[in-house]
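Follow-up to my earlier ticket, as requested here are the two runs.
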Amino acid sequence: MSGYGVGDDMVAKLRKGYRGSSRSTASEVFLDDDGSSRSVPAAPSTAALAARMRSFGPQRRPNGKVYQPRAVAREFEDIALLRDARKYREHVLFFGPPGTGKTALCEAAFAQDATPTHEGMESIVGTADTTESDFVGTFVQDSRTDAWTWRPGPLHRSVLFDVPLLVDEIALIDPRVLSVLYPLMDGRNVLRIPMNPDLDPLPVGKGWFVMAAYNPDVPGARMSDALRDRFEHHIEVMTDWELCVELGVSREIVEIAKNLDTRRRKGELSWSPQMRTLLSYARTERRRGQEFALANLVAKTPQDDRDEVRGALTRKFGAKVRDLRLGRRFAA
């Protein structure tokens, strides 16, 4: 064993540990550096921990719509889990197709903390052109006085108000720009803004942590391993089909959407209607009728998948579904 750089004393400890280690499901026995043994309790079950956590129920988002909570790992309420993650500064990354409720969940989880100053959190929507200034802030010139004043960005405001920061479409942002988040995500509890030397370092409070969301299938999406690893939890967000039905979407349309989504996940399609699109369909169907709503759904579909979606709708409803478009002059 010495050829591997392990001394005789360590070999003896290892052998002793192997002989003495417990096979009990309740605990495992480990050896400390001084050779003494200690017992580590077995990990508690997810169900047991979830049962201790208070659930919050439906929450009203800033736009007035009510968010219906969903289950994570079959046991945790998503809103309760997100609020608990903030308590321990466990940064959370959501991923999934557009319209599945990633942003809605983040808004709903912290809307109850809103004040006249903020909505319970701060947010930024990423693009390929997002810069560090978009996060921390920039100087803005007053056209009347020509004076320059500092305008805080969402990262600065989130630390200032001690609220969570949501980075939407994070995978579209240049990874070099996102390095501005690294120190705070790593637990360095001070925000420094070098571009404004007049600002004192801001201490990071207990209410701050990062939530992020992205669509992995969007062109140009990329995330560095260094960034991904800083998120404690990675949660896929998909559409709750039964909830769609409960919220008024016809079961026929939901079944079509489920089948299209299965094909999308297999790589046969690049798009399928998700929660937001289906709720929009239901509203349109009630206000404009089924034929109008079906044509509108086809028109919403990306061009590459339009024939497939049109075919699925046509097979279900019998008549060929056409795109929603302007026609000849309307006769009054």
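Run two:
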Amino acid sequence: MGLINLVFAVTQLARIESLNLDLSWMAFLKSSASSAETNGPTFVFALFFIYQLYKGNKWLCALNLVCSVIFFKRIALIAMMVCILIFLFRKYMSKERAFAPLCGANLLVIICLLNTLYVFGTVLFVNGFFADMIRSTGVSVGELTMGRNTLYKYVVKDFLNSDIFQFLFGHGTASCISLLNRHGIHDDLHNDVLKILYEYGAVIFLLFFYFLYRNANTWYRLSLSVMVNVFFLSDNTLIYASVIITFFLVSHENLGSQRLMPDSIN
């Protein structure tokens, strides 16, 4: 796996013709920090970063971190920060009995609840609930979301007008694209969480996250599941074959055998 990681990094870096980096906070908010910004590679480097972090390979871990910054995707970097926190606090949380109720079936309930709350947050967002807060940072809503707020608005509005069957079982495969096309937008939704809910309904939405976290019984596997879950919040990573293949490859590695909770607690 280390060799695959290294070869992937070398081939991606070799494609860069010129590089301009702006690591300012404003560039981060506007997602304009790197001239080499691209979609798939950053997510792949983020997944390799978690793999190398738990494997203890500091050099490849650093390489993946640098490449993630160079190919820059905000949501990928945010996912990495979340998983670094999980990595740093995993030993403490494993020892504390207070965290025991957060494991097993309860973890699945919490994850589904959090993703559902995110959907509710998106509904509030497209209705301008956070607009003043966002503008106080010095950027507009459109700049922060790179226009995604308009895409979300159409999908949220149509979903809220769904009948009970559509709410439970969705509007059908590719219905997001069809809806956006009717509004003159020829782009993907850039939000896999919302897309799954709209196209396949609440039943598949909940089952999707059940299967995503079903085997997350170690801190390593939980970190991987959390990482791709964060990807899904504001991008369409499910259509990136390289990301999905990498996720399955690193998921099947037997790393970080430390369970979420010791057997004596479980």
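The only thing I checked on run two: The chain is about 65% helix and 0% strand. Let me know what else you need.
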